[in-house]
Amino acid sequence: MAVRQRNFRMRLEGAVALQGDPAPHLDLLLSQLTRSLRVAVVYGGNKRGEGAVLREAQNPRSWKSYETVARNIAGSLTNLGFTDVAVLPDDMRLAESLRANRINFAWVNSGGVQGRSAISHTPALLEMLGIPYIGHDPLTAGLLDSKHHFKRQLQSLNIATAPFFVWHPNEPRSNAVSDRRFKSLFAKWSNGFVVKPVTGRASLHVHFVERAKDIAATVRHVHDVTQNSVMVEAYLPGREYCIAVCGPVVAQQQKMQLMPGPFVFSAIERKLGKNERIFTSMDLKPITTARTRALLADTDGDVVGRLEEMARSVYIGTPLQTLVRLDVRADHKGELFVLEANPKPDLAAPSAKSTSLICAGLSRYGMSYDDLILSVFADKAATLFDGRPHSVENFFGSFHYSDAEMSS
Ligand SMILES: Nc1ncnc2c1ncn2[C@@H]1O[C@H](COP(=O)(O)OP(=O)(O)O)[C@@H](O)[C@H]1O
Ligand SMILES: [Mg+2]
Fold it and tell me: What pLDDT score was predicted for residue 118?
C-alpha cells in the first residue's frame, strides 16, 4: 500500500507540476491527499427503502441504483492508495451519513432517487453542504440529462444533432403531427422517427416509428410511463458510435500527462445486429466485445477524427467539468449527429463477462481501469487546485469536522 501511495503522489505531483502553477498549497495538498481525504462514492438511493424519502414520487428518469459501479470505483480508489473510502446511497439521510463518516470529498455515481431532474439532486445537496465532488454541477447535470435542452445547446454551438420535436404533456397531443412546424422540421427526413423520453437511459422506452401517423400513440405510451415531455427525433439509419471525453489531466501507463485540451478517447462503433434499429438496452444484454468494435486511426481515420472533433467541441462549448460519453449516430450518407452526452457514463470495471462502452476502448490508450479512475480524480484535483485557493483549502487543508460539529 505504501508503494502505491507514493506512486499516486508522484503521479499527481507530475500532473500539477505540468500545470505550471506551483501554488503554495501544493505541499499541503500532496502530503494530505490520500491520508486525510475521506471519500464517499455516492450511488442512487432506493425510494422504497425505509426512511429514504418523506413521500414516494414519480421517476421520470428510469431509476437504477448504480451501487455495483460505485463499489468498482471505491475499489479502484483503494487500489490507488486512498485509505478512507465509503459507499453511500443518496437518499434523504445522505447529509447525516456524510457528517457521521466525516466525509470531505464525494464522487457522485447516481442518477438520483426520484422526482424531476433527479440527476442534479445530489450535486445540489453537495453544493449546499459545501462538499467538493466529482460530477457535473447541478445545472450542467440537469442540462445533459434533458435531451431536448441539451440538443438546443448543441444547435447553438453549431454541433450537428438530428431535428427533433418536443411533445409536452399539456399540449393537445392529437394536433402535433399535423402542426406546420412539425412538418417543416422533418420535410427532408424520410427514414422514419424515433420516439423517446427526454430524460432516459439505456435505450429504455426508445421506439422506432416508421410512419408519422403512428407517432401519437407511441408518444402517449412513453408519456404514460415517464409522466414527462416526449421527444420525436428524425431516425438516423447509419452506424452508431460512442466516444468519451474528459479534462486534460490524464493517467496513462501509470504516468500523469497534461494534454493540450480535453482528452478524447475510446472511440468505438456499437455493432447493431440485423434489423436492430435501436441499440438493445444494457439492462437486457450486457455490453461485450461482441457488441462493440474499437475504431482504429488506420482503418477508421476519417470517422475517428470527426468524432474526436465533435467530442472536443461539446466539452469546451458546454463547458463540461468531468467525463462524459457521447452517443453519436450517422445518417444514410455517413454524416455524424450527436444523440446525447451521458453525464454519468457507465464506469463498470471490465470483467471476463462484460465491460462498459468506455472501458471497451481503454487499452489502446495504455490505460487500465485504475488509470481511468485516477484521471477523473486528478483532473478534478487539478481544477480545484488551479487558482482557487479557497476551494483547495476546503478540499485538502482546513476542511475537517470539529468535535463540536460532530456532537451537535
Ligand atoms: N435519432 C435516432 N436515430 C437512430 N437511432 C436512435 C436515435 N435516437 C436514439 N436512437 C437509438 O436509441 C438508443 C438510445 O438513444 P439515446 O438517445 O442514446 O438515449 P438513452 O441512451 O438515454 O436511452 C441509441 O443508442 C440508438 O440506438
Ligand atoms: Mg444513449
Answer: 98
**Domain 2-134+386-407 falls under CATH 3.40.50.20:** yes
Angle between helices 2-18 and 26-36 (to 10 degrees): 150
Topology adopted by domain 166-234: Dna Ligase; domain 1 (3.30.1490)
Record the pTM: 0.90
Q: Is 327 in the pocket of ligand 1 (CB under 6 A)?
A: yes
Ligand 1 within 6 A of 240 CB?
yes
Question: Which residue spans of the chain are classified as CATH 3.40.50.20?
Answer: 2-134+386-407
- pLDDT score at 16: 54
Among all ligands shown, which has an atom nearest to the Cα of 279? 1
* Phi and psi, residue 52, nearest 5°: -80, -40
Please tell me if the CB atom of residue 45 comes closer than 6 angstroms to any atom of ligand 1: no
Residue nearest to atom 12 of ligand 1 (CA): 278
Chosen CATH of 240-367 out of 3.40.50.10420, 3.30.470.20, 2.60.40.1120, 3.40.50.620: 3.30.470.20
Q: How many CB atoms lie within 10 A of CB 210?
A: 12
Q: Residues of the chain whose pLDDT is less than 50?
A: 1-9, 21-28, 30-31, 387, 398, 408
Q: Where in the chain is the domain with CATH 3.30.470.20?
A: 240-367
- Which DSSP category does 122 fall into? H
CB 169 within 8 A of CB 141: no
Mutate which of 144, 148, 193, 206 for ligand 1 pocket (most atoms within 8 A of beta carbon):
206
Before 319, cis peptide (omega within 30)?
A: yes
Cell 487539478 -> residue: 382
Q: What local confidence, expressed as pLDDT, does residue 7 receive? A: 46
Task: Determine the Cα–Cα distance for residues 373 and 23; give it in Å rounded to an integer.
Answer: 24
